[in-house]
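Summary for the funding panel

The consortium committed to producing paired sequence-structure records for every protein in the target list. Below we show the first two records in order, beginning with the earlier of the two.
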Amino acid sequence: MIKINTVADQIQLSGIRRFDEWVSKIDGIDKLTLGEPNFITPQHIMDVTKTALDNGRTHYEASAGNPELRQATADYYNEKFELAYDAKNVLVTVGATEAIATALKTVTTPGDYILVPVPCYPAYLPLMQLQGVKPIFMDTRTTNFRVTAELIEKTLQENKNKAIVGFIFNYPTNPTGVSYGKIELSSIKDVLKKHDIWVMSDEIYCELTYEQPHISMANLYPEGTILIMGLSKSHAMTGWRIGFVLAEERLINAMKKVHQYHVTTAATLSQVAALEAVKNGKQDSVPMRDAYHIRRDRLVTALEKLGYNLIKPDGAFYLFVEIPKKLKLTSVEFCQQLALKEKVAVVPGSAFTEFGEGYFRISFAASDEQLAKLIIALENSKH
């Protein structure tokens, strides 16, 4: 009998994916569950990739990524967010999830602790668990779902005897859409730097911000930041599986080894597509962002009119909405009822750790017809 690794046996499949699979079996269901842009990859990216395939670009790429892509990626983010990276500071990965996994494997040791604001994107915790790294949760419900310097300092003081080495920071945040201005980020940076704590800054939604431009933590704390980026959200390229790690050269060199033995290299045709995206698609995200902005405003107005309490997102394409307390339903029960009775699917807040209980997440990367149906469904479900 082949035994399964105890940790692998204990971790659970993503709550988002589990619920999405469950609702997918319901006839006529409209799903607003996954973080999947409802746009297709821009045509110029697909055209260049088709040509590359016709020309036989089917062999291995360099393990750390095509050199031209690495430089173009550095240039792309330098221009957008006033950074100072070069090709040697970039690792091309199989999506942002592999970027996170590779970085964690490289810079942590079993027994280390990492600060994690919650509720959070559910992939972080299993990846930490597989590495033998433990989370220290920071409950952002007490700060209107925002990380603050004071919350970090308080958490550090309460856990003085633990080997806290890092901080996983995601913004605009999944599931709340919260983002941060320069003053907030500078205060957070000051606390981290004082305590010699690095930050893994997952900024995958950086090009989908509304009222204020995105400011990267790597701009303020370059020596202490492992920057996670990718094209899935900005260029509607989820299926191409391209992510990036941007960090100091010595860290990239170490991560390259871990990456190489996990996946060898990101797919060649996906790297061709990525090169076209970062060289000639610098404005590709704008029409998508503008469409999401309109949908956000329409949804926020409609749901507030219905009496729902919610977090108005600064970016990304999610709404995190409180379930009316009078219903006395768990987030799973509420979302199951919504799916079965109204044929509309949203994600239970408990998928984002127990700190998300009492809420549900809407992905408004959806059609106007689906969002109109959602509003009617939520009106029917509030009683």
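The next record, for a separate protein in the list, is shown here:
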Amino acid sequence: MRKFIPAVLTLSAFLVGCSNQPGAVQSQVLHRATGSWDGKPYTHYPDGQPVLSLVKVSIPPNTTLDWHCHQALNLGYLKEGELEVETRGGKRTTLTAGNTLAELVGEVHRGRTTRQAATVMVFHAANEELAFSTPQDQCPGQRPPADGPLDILLDDIEHRLASAESVALHKWDKAQPVQDNKRELQILNDVRNNAWRYQLPAERAAAFFADQIEAHKMMQYSLLNRWHSQGRSPDTSRRDLQQELRPELDALQARLLQHLASLPSDTGSACNQRLASSINERGLSPLMKQAMVRATGQLCDQR
């Protein structure tokens, strides 16, 4: 008797017989961490109902994000572009496409793109109450946002000093000296010529900017000395001096003059005490703190 073979079985056998064997499944751990990129260990997951999120963050070129913190665990993957990450305390790291990063928890930091836009895929492990990102003024244990003329001016001074590493890297690569008399003279002449717009005496404005220049150079010299002793500079993405850094510094000039003019006209020990307290509360790296002290050396002396 002839056996009946169901058509489905026949077709299945035919397909299996003609197909290639599938390749072996492969897996790759892109990043495994028990702590953030600065070496600080993670301690616990947030309490409450777990919430997992995968967040796509698109950042335009030449963009500096606001200072912020994360209160939960984040693991980022830079899909495309370039991204620099820095903390208030002066720690830095740079990511290029394909790099991963275990995010900081509780520490104020920010990211910055260069001439390329960046796309970051971030895995976020939190609970229903914790946001993906928390503004600086809402971060636990952090100082309040600048709400007075002095703090606002110090923010601008710190921002200007933060560019010293990028300038020093340019000069390291080009074997250029830190001292640039022509550029300094150009800045001071420009400040004198524009001081009247902010109702500032020309010499006071120039003296203030002379302090900014000296503090900036002090950071450059210190960084270069460190790199020379190590025999290499950090593997950090470079920013173009002419196209990126100097336009940024020029834009800061107007803000610094505006906020300098807004300072109350007090002098003496009370002013110096308030200035010292404001700088100490910033939690800066030793080098940045020293540079801030140098940059503000005459704030309480001239009115």
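Regarding this second record: The chain is about 40% helix and 15% strand. The helical segments are 7-18, 149-162, 164-174, 181-194, 202-230, 241-261, 268-280, 286-295.
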